[in-house]
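Re: [ENG-882] Designed sequences occasionally contain unexpected residues at chain ends

Forwarding the minimal case from QA. Structure tokens:
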């Protein structure tokens, strides 16, 4: 049974049964408005950024929600708002603290771009977000979807916000079989939606489309057409084409990297290392790791540690982590170190040696230089480690 039908809301629109309906694309899109707004008013979820849609809160939520589920974002959003209640506070954030708060969300460039944008907003806009799509889209980390979302949700400017959810909904409503990975397809849908959006309810309209895509016209499974307010105008729903629409061209296969991760322990401390300032996981801390699969007996050599410095090497379980363009297939070793005989060399383990210091290399092994030995409490509370290392950080203790 269809719970929401357009005939409940206005006259003159007949339920559409065939692909050759006389409604053209524009008319079909225009016919979504009333049932969409009615449904959203009745069914919108209560979310922390939605209940208080101030521009700054909308911006942070939209960045966090990229590639991340709503339920996962909620606690991060609350902590972030508490730590950085204003744009100015975000602009002044310490990098390591910002990354630690972001730890677990992944895609860390999002956090870096937030700070870059916050600095621009502080210096140029007095610590406020501009009420302009054209100005928003020039900020670091903000593309057409995010600019449209902020403009419409926070300022009620009639600007489309077309993400994956909206692309799926609109493709299905129109019975459009074009490849939604193509920028030209997204661009055309943005123009079509801009022409028919209600001028006074842009916020509810965009959020309604996004909400339908998230809750009803779902990805990766059969849509809940019986609960959809757009069913009567949806060519895909009426014709059962949901397995075919939307069409996505195959993605390029990810590159596979074999890596070995090391939990290197010395008394109550564990070794970490800061990654380079650019590239994958830039400037984040990590457990020492190398490319390839060395044997247990090769570990001291691979790590650049004197063999006599190693008390034990224990193999750890294999794990896997998927990034957007690369996939790590990991194995690991727990390496327990002995105290060095040279008392001065112990400063490396105690975290007192300066970065780049080479005065103790001949005593403990060159590999230890550049490593930072931290307590488990410091690792948990201070240093941001990417999710990729979670299977191994859980084994520290």
């Amino acid at each position: 049974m269809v719970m929401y039908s357009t005939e409940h809301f206005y006259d003159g629109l007949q339920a559409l049964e065939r692909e050759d309906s006389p409604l053209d694309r524009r008319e079909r899109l225009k016919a979504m408005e009333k049932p969409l707004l009615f449904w959203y008013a009745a069914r919108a979820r209560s979310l922390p950024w939605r209940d208080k849609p101030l521009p700054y809160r909308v911006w942070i939520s939209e960045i966090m929600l990229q590639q991340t589920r709503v339920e996962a974002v909620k606690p991060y959003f609350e902590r972030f708002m508490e730590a950085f209640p204003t744009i100015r506070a975000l602009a002044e954030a310490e990098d390591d603290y910002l990354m630690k708060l972001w730890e677990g969300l992944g895609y860390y460039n999002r956090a870096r771009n937030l700070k870059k944008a916050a600095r621009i907003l502080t210096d140029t806009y007095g610590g406020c977000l501009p009420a302009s799509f054209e100005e928003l889209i020039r900020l670091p980390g903000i593309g057409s979807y995010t600019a449209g979302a902020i403009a419409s949700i926070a300022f009620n400017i009639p600007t489309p916000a077309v993400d994956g959810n909206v692309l799926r909904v609109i493709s299905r409503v129109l019975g459009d079989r074009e490849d939604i990975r193509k920028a030209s397809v997204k661009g055309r849908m943005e123009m079509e939606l801009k022409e028919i959006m209600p001028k006074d309810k842009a916020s509810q309209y965009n959020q309604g489309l996004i909400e339908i895509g998230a809750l009803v016209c779902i990805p990766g499974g059969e849509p809940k057409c019986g609960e959809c307010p757009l069913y009567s105008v949806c060519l895909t729903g009426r014709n059962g084409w949901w397995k075919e629409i939307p069409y996505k061209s195959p993605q390029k296969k990810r590159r596979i990297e074999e890596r070995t991760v090391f939990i290197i322990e010395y008394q109550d401390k564990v070794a970490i290392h800061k990654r380079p300032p650019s590239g994958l996981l830039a400037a984040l801390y990590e457990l020492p790791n190398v490319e390839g699969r060395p044997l247990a007996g090769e570990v001291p050599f691979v790590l650049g540690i004197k063999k006599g410095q190693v008390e034990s090497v224990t193999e750890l379980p294999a794990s896997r982590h998927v990034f957007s363009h690369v996939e790590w297939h990991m194995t690991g070793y727990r390496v327990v170190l002995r105290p060095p005989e040279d008392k001065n060399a112990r400063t490396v383990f105690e975290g007192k040696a300066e970065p780049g210091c080479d005065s103790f290399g001949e005593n403990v092994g060159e590999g230890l230089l550049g490593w930072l030995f931290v307590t488990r409490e410091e690792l948990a509370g201070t240093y941001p480690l990417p999710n990729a290392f979670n299977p191994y950080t859980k084994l520290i203790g």
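QA comment: On inspection the terminal residues look reasonable. The chain has two domains: 6-239, 255-393. Proposing we downgrade this to a documentation issue.
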